[in-house]
Every structure is written in C-alpha cells, then in structure tokens.
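ZP: hey, is the phosphoribosyl ATP complex queued? I don't see it on the tracker
AM: it wasn't, my bad. submitting now with these inputs:
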Amino acid sequence: MSIATQSTEPGLILALSKGRIFDDTLPLLASAGISVLENPETSRKLILATNDPGVRVLIVRATDVPTYVQYGAADFGVAGKDVLLEHGGEGLYQPVDLNIAACRMSVAVNAGFDYESAVRQGARLRVATKFVNTARQHFASKGVHVDLIKLYGSMELAPLVGLSDAIVDVVSTGNTLRANNLVEVEKIMEISSRLVVNQAALKLKRARLQPIIEAFERASKTQG
Ligand code: PRT
Ligand code: MG
C-alpha cells in the first residue's frame, strides 16, 4: 500500500475482550487474512499488532467494547447480545451475527424455591443481575413485579446468601448453576456475539472495512 493511500485510508482498530470472544474471533480474522501477533493472555499490552500494519486490536472489558466503538476509539468490535442490549446500541451498526460465544440468558433460583408458584401468586421478587435492562423488560412483559439488584459479577452467589430470590445471568453448560445448587427456571433469550461497527467509520473507511465484514459474514456461517 502506498503512503498516499495510507494517508487517505487510516488504519483500522478492532476492539475485543480477552477470553472466549478473542479466541472465537481469531478464526474469523484468519478468514480475512489477519492474524494477531501477540497473545492477550500472556502479553500485558492493551494494543496488539497484527500481520497487517493497517489493523490493530484493542483489548478491553467485554462490557466496554460497545462504548469504544460508539465513540470511534475503535472502528469495529465484537460483543455479546447480552452486552449490546444493556448498552443500547447507540451509534453502532450491527451487520453480522457471528454465531460465536453462544449461550442463553436465563432466570435461575435456589433448588428449593418454587418460582412458578411465586409468579402465579403475584409475589414481588428480588432479582440480582448484571443485566438490569434485559431483566426489567423481561419481567415487565410477564407482568411480574421485581426489585432489581445490580451486581457486577458472581450473580450465582446472591440467592445462596439470601441477597435475592432469583438471578438473571448467562448460562452455557449450566455447570456453574449446578455447582451452586441453583436451577434454571426460565430461558429469556438465546445469546451470541455480533460484529459492531462505528457508523461514521463505516462511511469513511468503507473500502477497508467492507472486505473484512464480508469475510466475517462468510466464516460465521460455518461456525456454531
Ligand atoms: O469476565 P468479565 O467480567 O471480564 O466480563 P464478561 O463475563 O462479560 O466477559 P466474558 O469474556 O466472560 O464473556 C463475554 C461474552 O461471552 C458474554 O457477553 C456472553 O455474550 C458470552 N458468553 C458465552 C458468556 C458465557 N458463554 C458464559 N458462560 N459469558 C459469561 N459466561 C459465564 C456466566 O456468567 C456464568 O458465570 O460463565 C458462567 C456460566 O457458565 P456455565 O458453562 O457454567 O453455564
Ligand atoms: Mg466472564
């Protein structure tokens, strides 16, 4: 790429979180000819180089990915539907469901708690969750009155110590619920991760972004 081309086509910045999203995005990047040169689990760097000098990867918290992309600090990113629903999606274009990091958003309670009866009897439930918007909407649509308690992690603990009657959390294997004697009583929605693109970047950097979006789209059809 010539210097002249580079100056009119500044590099791309991709925001990813460590762990399952980073791991599941690597094959999608490979399909676009991009490989990340450092491992975020062992490197302390927060900006990682790739084999393409025009593409760099930011390592941020999963819940912060939409924020970096919304404000244009990253041009694109990968975030779970759970995270996007809480963020609201403002300023984000969401072209592709990547079918990665699949899980479900569910309601869970202590094994001894009769959730169905409590709901039928119109009890007011205390629900602990990181996903307050999704939880509020879910219980409102069922006409169930809830007091929501916002937590930032380890939701499984809340019913065990009497902080709440129920939790709303993401579940994949169900092993964490089982290990804590909790039971999944309601599935709210299926969750997977999406590609999110800054709306201005999509216009200004379309020539660089479009082939990557298309490669991700093709590769994601074979995931899952
Ligand atoms: O961990 P951190 O607090 O930094 O943030 P995070 O938990 O939001 O990030 P991360 O990387 O763990 O998850 C990123 C995205 O992966 C989430 O936004 C989801 O869309 C998706 N995902 C898929 C999951 C899971 N599967 C999952 N199992 N996110 C979290 N979990 C947790 C869950 O909260 C529970 O504590 O794993 C535990 C349950 O797992 P099982 O297999 O025991 O059911
Ligand atoms: Mg986590």
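AM: back. Confidence is low (pLDDT under 50) at residues 1-8.
ZP: great, adding it to the tracker
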